[in-house]
Structures are given as structure tokens and as C-alpha cells.
Amino acid sequence: MAIGTIAGLSYWYPGSAEPALREVSTDLLDGLTVVAGPSGGGKSTFLRVLNGLVPHFHGGSIAGRAWVLGSNIVETPTRNLARSVGFVFQDPELQTVYNTVDREVAFGLENVGVPTRLIAGQVQEALRVAGILHLAGRTVRTLSGGERQRVALASSLAMTPRLVVLDEPTSQLDPDGASLLLAAAARLVDEGRAVIVSEHRLDRLLKLATALLLIEGGRVERADPASWRPSSTASTPARRASSGSEMWSLDGVTAGFNGQPVIEDAHLAGRSGEVVVLNGPNGGGKTTLLRLIAGSLAPLAGTVRRRPGRIAYLPQNPTALLHRPTLRAEVKLTLERSGDRERPEEILDALGLLHVADRYPRDLSTGERQRAALAAVLPGSPALVLLDEPTRGMDVAARDALVGLVTRLRGRGAAIVLATHDSDLTLALADRIAHVASGRVRETPVAAVQK
Length: 451
Description:
Layout: E1 2-12, E2 21-29, E3 32-36, H1 43-49, H2 53-56, E4 61-68, E5 71-72, H3 78-81, E6 85-88, H4 101-111, H5 116-129, H6 145-157, E7 163-167, H7 175-190, E8 194-198, H8 203-208, E9 211-216, E10 219-223, E11 246-257, E12 260-271, E13 274-279, H9 286-294, E14 301-306, E15 311-314, H10 327-338, H11 344-350, H12 366-377, E16 384-388, H13 396-411, E17 415-419, H14 423-429, E18 432-437, E19 440-444
Parallel strand pairs: 3-8, 3-9, 6-7, 7-8, 13-17, 13-18, 15-16, 16-17
Antiparallel strand pairs: 1-2, 1-4, 4-5, 9-10, 11-12, 11-14, 18-19
Helix pairs in contact: 4-5, 4-6, 5-6, 10-11, 10-12
């Protein structure tokens, strides 16, 4: 059964000469629809048509027609569409309104006038379906990126929408979190709701899908989810280099927030020319470890040591790094401040971003914006490189470009620490692995990593 129809739809962002969507015509069906394609191909723009953010919020020009659940997208205000179309963005940080998890999940219900006596029950059920009942009462700012992503999902589910749209929902989730999200999606379909999911991690999703849309260059094509398969997702393991002197160390370090430890009695160190990968569940302490190594968080106990040199740090929310009018200007600023003589075009080319070098970075897709943030912090020869979920929103080609860039930095003697759930990235780059869970840190063999 069709829940929507898009006919001859083209869309141009403000000031853009090229359309982000080109003559799109397709039906939207009940069940689980998977949306796939390369970064920057138009997936997020297509999804934002479904709740009216395109064109009502983003502006620009639109041609053609689109109906979702009986509503004309162009003529219906987004506040009305939000009652029947739930949306979870790629950047959960952008969806947060309240400071605590419970209030955040209740926000939409309060907005549409759900009786107060019913709200608590609906919030509890949404937290349960999203697998985060244990986060009830937590302060949002203390959550990891993956935990925030599931809070955003619960906020959407609390509204009991007829259609749930998920834009890269597993990009920051550990394997257990991704499994919980897939189970939640399957349950929604069983309850008679439609789910549309944009993803790069497709193996398990395709087994559940009833429809598949491929989006590239703004064009949309239908494919059979039972027979279509993505290109290989495995990056070639990079050649290892010899490690040098110790660049950083944590000796008996305990750290946390408001006196509550997140990391306890951590002992870990890294050398120049070495990649240390941090893995483990969401909320286990990986980001806290990176902040300790960077010096942006002081330990509650123990000693943190760092050798002198430039630190390149990519946080979970890369948008916070991007503030210059063009991507080229972002890279140029870093090079000027560090005194490196490298041309901005070198790293832009390495990351496949030359074609957007003169674009405003915050207008890029999430995958492109992730690479833009990498380009802004990694040019030249930093001594210490800290990357928090660097493949978020990236397709296979972008991840391979990242592997090449990190390999080059390692060869120049940088000490590199990256936190990731991406097992392919780990296998391609890791010299050593530290598993971070329940506040404890222990080293594990690289050979133990499974896809």
C-alpha cells in the first residue's frame, strides 16, 4: 500500500545552480524502505522532503509534486506534518531542547497537547523501545553521541507517528545499539507503521527491507532489496610503520563529571607512528579518554602526560569546528596557524572534497561535513591526532580516503588515537586496540576484532 507519492520533483537549495534532487518520481510504500547511495548524493535532502523541511525550512526552489500520508508537502506546514511523520536526524545534537532525557522525550508530546497524565507512560514506552530505559533522568550533555542518537529516536517514537524517517541512525551506535534500533524498526513495521531508513551499513537492513531506493546525483532509482548488494565495504589494511617514542600516557587516571567517575584507574600510552583504536559500547568512556589525552578534561586522579606538539582533535559533532565562509578557508586557517607549508588543495583532494572547496561547510551533507571537519583539523603534520567516530555518515570511498590520510600521518610520525565502532576501519588501521567499557580500559588483540 502506498503511503505517499512523489512526481517529477526537483529541488534547488538557495543560491545553488544545480538541483539537489532531479526529476524524482517514486511511490512510498508501507513496510521498511531502505535508502542507499554515496555521501552528498541527495539522500538527506530526499528524506527532508517527507516532513516538509524541504522546502519550508531550507528555502530554495522546488518543482513537481509530493504527497505523504495524504498531505501535500508544499502546502502543509511542517508543524502539521510532524504529527504523522517522525524524523531522526543524522546529528542528534541538533534535536536536543531540554537538559534531561525524560523532558527531552516528552517535549513533542507537550507541544501537541497530550494530557499530562498520559505523558509519563508514553515516555517510558518510547525509552523502552529505544533500549534506553537506563538513561531516564540522565543529563543530556553527559551522554555519548550514540546515546544521544537513541534519545532522538525515543523522542520521535513517543509521538507514535504513522511514518518514521531515520537518517543514518546507526552511524554512532555500537553493535548492541544498532541491533536494538533494527529491532525497534521491525517492531514499528509489525505494528502497521512505515519506516524509511537511510544508511551506509546495509547488511542487516536489506534482510528486513520491503523496498530499496538508490539515490545518486540527485536521482532516485528503485531496486530489489533481495538481490541488490552494495560494493565491498572492507578497506585494505594499511602497511604498518615502526613506532617511535612515547607521545602520551595515562597513569592511574580517573575522570568524570560532577565528581562522578566515567573512567577509573586507566593505564594506557601511545607512541609516534602508531594508531591506537578505542572500541567498546556507547557511554563506556571513549570520548572521555580522548578528552583526557587532548587536555580538555582534567583528571580527578592520576597523571596525564603529553609530548609538545600540535594536537588535531575531531569531536563527535564536527559542525562545531566549521565557521569559515568556505571549506578552503577552513583548511587555510589551520595551515597558517600551524606554520605548515602544505597547500589546502592537497588534503581536499585526498579526501575527495575539491569539488566543494568553495562551498560553505555547514551546507554540505553530513558525510561531506564529516570529511570537511577532517580536512580542517588534519592538514600538515600534527604531532597528536585524536578522532572521535571519524567515519560517521561516510560511504566506502570516503572511508578509504580517510584510511589513506591516517596512514600518511602515521608515516610522518603522528601518534593517532581514534574511537570507532567501525570494525573495517579498525582492521585497516589499528596497531593496538583498547576496549573501553563500564569505565575500565583494557588492551585487546587486533585479531579479536570481528565485523
